[in-house]
Structure to design on (173 residues):
């Protein structure tokens, strides 16, 4: 084999090795960014489900609070009626005092349930707000990850590399 042919063969081999190294490096970058994109997408899906769950729980607790408020009004009205009966009818005092005590316990129970429900509602609203913020951040992260993947994929073609572009006279795609 003549010397120019050997040099040409060696030059071709070196070029193939350089391109192979470059391609492997860029492929690794693309894989890294794609795995980051998948992780961000998974986080977005999780936070979206959390937000939906929190929103549903808030609606349920608001309905429960409305029902408990109605019960509170009804129970307090019943309590007042029982108090009036105690004053009007001393003969049946034992019976009416029993009703009075029962109604008072129900009012206290409803008041405690209302307080517990209010606290739970407050916690759920806080969790919902946090989940909304997490979804917003996850969407932004996903957008950035997609941009990085796109930019990284463009560099798979060595002709798109900035140094090659500058050597070719600044032409860019």
């Amino acid at each position: 084999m003549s010397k120019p042919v050997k040099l040409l063969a060696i030059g071709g081999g070196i070029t193939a090795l350089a391109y192979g190294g470059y391609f492997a490096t860029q492929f690794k970058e693309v894989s890294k960014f794609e795995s980051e994109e998948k992780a961000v997408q998974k986080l977005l899906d999780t936070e979206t489900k959390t937000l939906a769950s929190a929103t549903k729980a808030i609606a349920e607790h608001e309905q429960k609070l409305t029902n408990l408020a109605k019960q509170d009004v009804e129970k307090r009205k019943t309590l007042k009626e029982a108090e009036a009966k105690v004053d009007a009818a001393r003969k049946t005092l034992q019976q009416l005092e029993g009703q009075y005590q029962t109604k008072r316990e129900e009012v206290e129970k409803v008041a405690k349930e209302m307080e517990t429900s209010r606290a739970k509602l407050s916690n759920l609203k806080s969790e919902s707000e946090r989940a909304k913020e997490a979804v917003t951040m996850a969407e932004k992260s996903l957008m950035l990850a997609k941009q990085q993947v796109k930019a990284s994929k463009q560099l798979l073609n060595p002709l798109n590399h900035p140094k090659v572009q500058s050597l070719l006279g600044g032409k860019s795609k």
